[in-house]
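Form P-L/3: holo structure prediction, ligand 2-acetamido-2-deoxy-beta-D-glucopyranose.
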Amino acid sequence: MAVLPQDLSLFSISFFFLQLLVLTSSSALIILYFYLRFTTSRDPDLSRAESEKSFLDPNDGTRKPFPLISDPPTVQLSLVVPAYNEQDRFPIMIKETLEYLHKRKQRDSEFTYEILVVNDGSKDNTSKVVMEYVKKEGPDRMRLLDFVRNRGKGGAVRAGCLSARGKRILFLDADGATDIKGLDELEKAMNSVSSDSTSPAIVVGSRAHLEDEAVANRSFFRNILMYGFHFLVFFLCVKGVRDTQCGFKLLTRSAVDRIFTNLHIERWAFDVEMLYIAQCLNIPIKEVAVNWQEIEGSKMIPVFSWIQMGRDLLFIRLRYMFGFWTIKAKTS
Ligand SMILES: *[C@@H]1O[C@H](CO)[C@@H](O)[C@H](O)[C@H]1NC(C)=O
Ligand SMILES: *[C@@H]1O[C@H](CO)[C@@H](O)[C@H](O)[C@H]1NC(C)=O
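OUTPUT (holo model):
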């Protein structure tokens, strides 16, 4: 126990506070240990409802199973688009994306791709809107994975990437905030880390170059929160990636296989856990600047969410530290 000092010399007072600090932090750690122990499920919840294991082929009205991530790839590129209540913004985003892909196909007839939209239990007509495009493009080029309930962006990205056919898999936001043309730069960077496309590697789109400018326009308080968040990411989980949160990331199929089968977090902080796992597995990560615009109706991050994210980061780290979560390295 910390005992109030008899004499009030500087030494004994500092010693008292030191004792107090050690005592409170160790009790906090013990409380967190038991709290996390009883609230943490050990394995990622990769289970899916029966209807989530297949997609609707609008040509013949039948459902066909998605492939497994362990199957060999059958297209060069998969674009995985998580969508939650995106009926209004999706058509704008998909128009630009299809234009880009069609142009690329014209230039290079060997180029093969698919778009896999994951409707994350939307309350609006997202899945209807998406199905209209699936009908037009055909199920070989475009598919819909329709969640029966909302799971969060991490859950949607994970299921989508694990159901994709691509040699390389890009996930991108349904609001079209990132210019799809940035994919060219991501692929160039990918070629330099994983030329054969089979070794695991990640290239992340980054808005860090824009953040430097935006700092001047944001309130002091928001900047403090932002720097606090960056510091926590760096200190607790991921080193050497400036923008972990940009929803524009390219992975090789083997990286998806190793990382997403280990991913627990289904909500906002999933990007951080994903990169944390990658660094634990020594998977190379490259960061490439992308064009990004704040889209009207963007899900602005409220102050409360920053605090929640800070807590999530701490909990991610502690769960791995306490051994509640482990990373299973595949040998294949
Ligand atoms: C979804 O579509 C139905 C009919 O197609 C319409 O009545 C409804 O208002 C739409 N919902 C939203 C949120 O727009
Ligand atoms: C900052 O605000 C000024 C004026 O309000 C604007 O002209 C400028 O484009 C803004 N910069 C950024 C990076 O948003």
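COMMENT: DSSP finds ten helices and nine strands in the chain.
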